[in-house]
Amino acid sequence: MSKNRRIRILIVGIGALGGTIATRAVSAGMPVWLATRSAESARVLRSSGLRVSGIGGTAIADSVPVAAIEEYAEADKFDLILLATKAHDALEIAPFLSSLLTPGGTLLPIQNGSVSQILADRLGSVVVLGGLSNLGATMVKPGIYEQRNAGHLLIGELAVGLSGRVAKISQDLSGAIEMRVTPNLRGAVWAKLLLNCSVTTIGAVAAQTMRQYMMSSGGREVFRRIYDEALSVALASGTQPERMIVEPIPPNWQGTSVPGDDYNVWIDQIMATYGDIKASMLQDFERGLRTEIDFINGYVAQLGSQIGIPIALNAAMTDMVHLIEQGQIQPHPARLDDLLQRVSSSEKKSG
Questions:
Q1: 3-class DSSP assignment, residue 290
Q2: Most Cβ neighbours (<10 Å): which of 50, 125, 127, 255?
Q3: Beta carbons of 106 and 116 less than 8 angstroms apart
Q4: How far is CA 220 from each of CA 141, 196, 199, rounded to the nearest angstrom?
């Protein structure tokens, strides 16, 4: 790329996360273009403009460079594509997006769970850079967003270590959102995945906050077992989870969590951040949307099965979420006892 040419950035997926970043980027005059699923969605955003409020201040973009994703096939290539769609859509659209990159260009997915690693396996780590977000945002309606926290994007190579492109992309995006880098991106992804598997998914199937479901013995048991299984899979796969909200390995952990004062303090640290948050997966249930369970507990179950780590509760949780998606059962606190009973029955039969 010529030193005199500004980097061209495409943001794909203008929902809560992508829309918040896009609004701040456009309003800051960054060289960004936006891509939506359909021409109608693009037309709505061109007509309404973009606005984000909340933490970080108000940003407004009246003139929006947005088009349906397929329209970019004949446009100039992009140096960086920020992929902010749902996980399923990310896997589907990524091969097309790679064709929109300049030579040496980068695809940066920022979904939860295993998306970055799956795409790197498919498209190559030379193309795919790993990322994850702790930005809390809500889409009030298309084009109108509210930022809920002073969040950031964390990026890094999926192979351990830092690189020049990580530093450059961090700088390129810093005008829209706080950027951080890590030499252990896989560890950071797993650290968040551990909490997604436990805090988020349990809250969704129970229709409760973490603070609520941890008041029951069933809730505490499901949390402990799901977390322990996921952590065992991470370690067995050769990944050392990185400290995020808490140390990813519970105190005195030796394959299973050890109840006691130290463990309770560790739980309280998680509760301080996540205890009263409504699970995003529960919102998906309420809206009749497909969840990302296959990239969260489902990924843990699949990988654990491949490497020989017991993952009974993560597998059962994945099945239960699919039943809720299909309307066969409803989210309810009783679902947690159902999970334990199902796993217990299965273990007795296999025993």
A1: coil
A2: 50
A3: no
A4: 36, 15, 11
Residue type for 342, please? Answer: R
> How many CB atoms are located within 10 Å of the residue 209 CB?
18
The arrangement of strands across the sheet holding 130-133 comes to 130-133, 152-156, 178-181
Cα 312 to the center of its chain, rounded Å: 23
Q: Please, what are the domains in the chain?
A: 9-183 (3.40.50.720), 187-350 (1.10.1040.10)
Extract the runs of DSSP E, i.e. beta strands, from the chain.
9-12, 32-36, 50-54, 59-61, 66-68, 78-83, 101-109, 130-133, 137-141, 144-147, 152-156, 178-181
The pairing of strands 152-156 and 130-133 is antiparallel
As given in the structure block, the two tokens for residue 112 are: 């939860």
pTM equals: 0.86
Cα–Cα distances (Å) from 96 to 12, 100, 185, 273, in that order, read 12, 7, 25, 37
CA gap 233, 115 in Å, rounded = 17
pLDDT digits (tens, 9 = 90+) for 186-236: 899 999 999 999 999 999 999 999 999 999 999 999 999 999 999 999 999
